[in-house]
Design brief:
Largest sheet of chain A: none
Order of helices and strands of chain A: HHHHHHHHHHHHHH
Largest sheet of chain B: 12 strands, mixed
Distance between the termini of chain A: 7 Å
Number of strands of chain B: 20
Shape of chain B: globular
Number of domains of chain B: 3
Radius of gyration of chain A: 24 Å
Strand content of chain A: under 5%
Number of strands of chain A: 0
CATH topology of the largest domain in chain B: Dipeptide-binding Protein, domain 3
Largest interface: A-B, 67 and 62 residues
Helix content of chain B: 25-40%
Distance between the termini of chain B: 67 Å
Oligomer: heterodimer
Strand content of chain B: 15-25%
CATH superfamily of the largest domain in chain B: Dipeptide-binding Protein, Domain 3
Shape of chain A: globular
Structural class of chain A: mainly alpha
Radius of gyration of chain B: 27 Å
Helix content of chain A: over 70%
Chain lengths: 314, 541
């Protein structure tokens, strides 16, 4: 187990290294020059050269990358080209909002998806099953930019129940924190929930068709006993996989929803960095997102082994 | 039994994962706490110097409930708070209320006293002597002195984005603490606009440059003091009790909180529900409906910005003035303004808007969708089947809309417009490298005609990307730059403007209105012609 962990963590760092090289190369290949953006339309060659030198863009690419990498290993992701703020600070100060939204959305998604998916699998072919299928189809097809705007129009403007924008840290008041969280979490949670519902349904359905379920029925267990003891334990693996993917995706920031609800998350940081060609910030943000995905993958793999003794971690 | 235990382990693992995540977020709250500490430290510095007569202790705490704190919503995020280094309008919305300039544009855009109470010009027009206001204090408690002005201007010249505005300046000196003397190499009638027309020319204290905090913790002399900035709270300002207009009871507000709401629809909703008191812009299509609503005021004044496009005169056939004129005739400016701004704009064939009374020149030689004249000019030039590679950027979405309208209009004279829509950083690259047949954008915040014409149309101008070169225009612009007689100067600019328009160096489209909106609780605020956002006289009921 510990050998497995060490190997996986080493692999993770190799993957991160690869990601950083690709991102670095891509950012310098696309047109658009951060110094030009900083200068705006008022371009001046001397000023341009001076600014390039100040942020180190005048050095050869390899040198820029290696010096960035050297610092990154010690946890220093450099400073933003635009405002000189440490990238680590910029990312860290957006983590509370990002993680809050991701976990709240996932919570809503699971509350919706687990019962709906299980019920529609167990009652497969019934009216209830069709209703759940139709609802999840609507949920998946509903774009987040549309759903978000609709919730704002209904719950903020028409009913006046909830604020339309912003984030209040939990420490500044749990009620305000929750009020600001509801609409963005609902927007993402229902979409994620619809996706997860379909996975839960098919995973449970597959387990229900196994021979051991027939045996269980034959020995007189009730349907719910079968689901609890024999079906669910075997259905967990695909469910955990999709939940892990969803969580990884949410922890990377959800650009559209963050923009609509003025949510101060990582997605907006990355979006602004792309627009400004703020290479260091973008590099840091992508690295963080890749790290989150890899870390969650690792956790998912460990969970696999716990769920199913047949999966060997070595 | 074994299965049950396995299941419990999953639950524990998931719980652990959740805990780790929560722990991360709590760790970050500590970071936010650190920021607060920094702010407090800065405020303590404020109170530290002995010469501070009124220790501003009552305002060091964050505004209490019941305090009059205006919540102002901005559509984009300030990139940084160093006035000399930013070119972002969102930054200037904030900094307008923190910093002062030597003099400043009044509501009618004439220049009025600010940090300088008065000024004198020598008989040869080459020496300007500014008398500074007494008793002005920096937000950190230090006395404002003439050396601060010298330092600020030297910094802008050495490394700021606006050093070019000092082109005519020879020396800047401070003979004593309350006098600044500026000598010029040539008469410069627009000196005041050049060196104090907007907050990019702010006077700053040297200490925040030395300690490197200017980008994140600005200290000025303006009506409001910077308190904090965070992604969660936005930018928080508090009343400066030592403001040099404090005897007039200004500022009225206890503080301002700038929040950033990037989505225009959400920003409108936030104003309608009262989550914010003021918003920085209204989508043109919503102006009418919003203005009709109870409880909301839409402020709208003709602005000094102008929208234009330019054809690349280094490329055939756009080097032929007849082709450029044909295009200027074929387009319909009213239609373009209607499509892009829903009529919240005034079509104009020159740059300077009618609201700029001192410098407006009424000149409109081109038709409006005059395809017959356009076709005749194209035939004369022997051009047919022309295709234009039109460079626009969706970061300024109106340029895309306008290009689409222009494409439809030019199709009537057999010209095909191929729209190249890129993001702004790419746009700047392509423009800088001359890789376009036509590019379109707008110029903002100009007051003096030198700002409107020189850099864009002088053959040596820094922003003459379209490759315009007319020796007569050059000499007119050079002469107008140093002409101190207002009427003679106006005549020179009128003559230059006529040539620039006739030659279609830029094809001017319209001047958009400046638009803000606010709730009825807000008083004493007015939308300005230069789009500066000033809350010093604003009240909240």
């Amino acid at each position: 187990m510990s050998g497995f962990l060490v190997r996986r963590i080493l692999q993770m760092f190799l993957a991160l290294l690869g990601v950083s090289i690709v991102v670095f190369a891509l950012m310098h290949l696309v047109p658009g020059d951060p110094v030009r953006v900083a200068l705006g339309t008022r371009f001046d060659q001397d000023l341009y050269d001076a600014l390039r030198e100040r942020v180190g863009l005048d050095k050869p690419l390899i040198e820029q990358y290696l010096s960035w990498l050297g610092n990154a290993i010690t946890g220093d992701l450099g400073v933003s080209f635009r405002n000189g703020q440490p990238v680590t600070t910029l990312i860290l100060e957006r983590l509370p909002a990002t993680i809050t939204l991701a976990l709240a959305a996932l919570f809503i998604a699971l509350i919706v998806a687990l019962p709906a998916g299980i019920i529609s699998a167990v009652r497969s072919g019934s009216g209830l099953d069709y209703t759940v299928s139709a609802a999840s189809q609507v949920g998946i097809s509903m774009p987040d930019f549309w759903a978000g705007v609709m919730y704002i129009l209904l719950f903020s403007l028409a009913l006046g129940w909830l604020p339309s924008s912003g984030f209040t840290p939990f420490g500044d008041g749990p009620v305000e924190w929750a009020r600001h969280l509801v609409l963005p979490a609902l927007t993402i949670g229902l979409i994620s929930g619809s996706i997860i519902t379909r996975f839960v349904r098919s995973a449970v359905l597959e387990a229900l068709n196994q021979d051991y379920v027939l045996t269980a029925r034959a020995k007189g267990l009730t349907e719910w006993q079968i689901v609890r003891r024999h079906v669910l334990p075997n259905a967990w693996i695909p469910i955990v996989t999709v939940v892990g993917l969803q969580l990884g995706f949410l922890l990377g920031g959800v650009v559209v929803v963050e923009v609509i609800f003025a949510w101060p998350g990582l997605g907006r940081l990355a979006l602004t960095a792309v627009k400004d060609r703020d290479f260091t910030v973008l590099q840091g943000a992508v690295l963080y997102i890749a790290f989150m995905f890899l870390a969650i993958n690792l956790v998912v793999d460990i969970i696999y082994a716990r769920l199913d003794p047949r999966v060997r971690v070595s | 039994m074994r299965k049950v235990r396995t299941r419990w382990r999953i639950v524990i693992l998931l719980a652990l994962l959740a805990l780790v995540a929560t722990a991360c977020s709590e760790g970050d709250s500590v970071d936010v706490g650190d920021e607060t500490t920094t702010t407090e430290a800065a405020t303590q510095t404020t109170a530290a110097p002995g010469e501070t007569t009124e220790a501003p202790t009552e305002t060091t705490a964050p505004p209490e409930s019941g305090a009059q704190v205006l919540i102002a919503a901005q559509g984009s995020e300030p990139d940084q708070l160093d006035p000399h280094m930013t070119s972002a309008y969102a930054s200037f919305q904030v900094l307008e209320n923190v910093y002062d300039t030597l003099v400043q544009p009044a509501a009618d855009l004439s220049m009025e006293p600010a940090l300088a109470e008065s000024w004198e010009i020598s008989d040869d027009n080459l020496t300007w002597t500014f008398q500074l206001r007494d008793g002005v204090k920096w937000h950190n408690g230090r006395d404002f002195v003439a050396g601060d002005v010298v330092y600020s201007f030297e910094r802008i010249i050495a490394e700021g984005l606006n050093g070019w505005r000092f082109g005519a300046v020879d020396t800047i000196t401070a003979p004593d603490d309350s006098t600044v003397v500026i000598t010029l190499t040539q008469p410069s009638p627009n000196l005041l606009v050049s060196i104090a027309g907007f907050k990019g020319m702010a006077i700053i204290p040297e200490e925040i440059v030395t300690d490197g905090t200017i980008g994140t913790n600005p200290i000025g002399t303006g009506p409001f003091r910077f308190v904090s900035q965070s992604p969660d709270e936005g930018i928080v300002l508090e009343k400066n009790p030592d403001y040099w207009r404090a005897s007039e009871g200004l500022p009225e507000l206890d503080g301002i909180r700038f929040v950033q709401i990037p989505d225009a629809g959400t920003k409108l909703t936030a104003l309608r529900t009262g989550e914010v008191h003021w918003i920085d812009a209204v989508p043109p299509q919503d102006i009418e409906s919003l203005g009709a609503e109870d409880g909301i005021t839409v402020g709208r004044v003709p602005g000094g910005d102008y929208h234009y496009f330019a054809l690349n005169q280094n490329r055939a056939p756009f080097d032929d003035v007849r082709v450029r004129q044909a295009i200027a005739h074929a387009i319909n400016r009213e239609e373009i303004a209607e499509a892009a701004q829903f009529g919240a704009a005034t079509a104009n064939q020159t740059a300077i808007p009618a609201s700029n009374v001192a410098w407006y020149y009424d000149y409109a030689p081109f038709g409006s969708g005059d395809t017959a004249t356009a076709q005749a000019l194209l035939d004369e030039a022997g051009v047919s089947g022309l295709t234009i590679d039109f460079l626009v950027t969706s970061d300024f979405p109106e340029t895309v809309t306008q290009a689409q309208v222009i494409a439809a209009e030019l199709a009537a004279v057999g010209i095909t417009v191929e729209i190249t829509d890129v993001d702004f950083s790419t746009w700047l690259d392509l423009q800088g490298n001359g890789e376009f047949d036509a590019f379109m954008l707008s110029w903002i915040g100009n007051i003096d005609p030198d700002d409107f014409y020189y850099a864009q149309h002088h053959s040596t101008g820094g922003f003459n990307f379209q490759g315009y070169a007319n020796a007569e225009v050059d000499s007119l612009l050079d002469a107008a730059r140093v002409e101190t007689d207002q009427a003679a100067r106006k005549a020179l600019y009128d003559e230059a403007a006529q040539m620039i328009v006739d030659d279609a160096s830029y094809i001017y489209l319209y001047n958009p209105d400046n638009i803000n909106a606010w709730r009825d609780e807000v008083g004493g605020y007015a939308t300005r012609g230069d789009n500066a956002i000033r809350f010093e006289e604003t009240t909240l009921n």
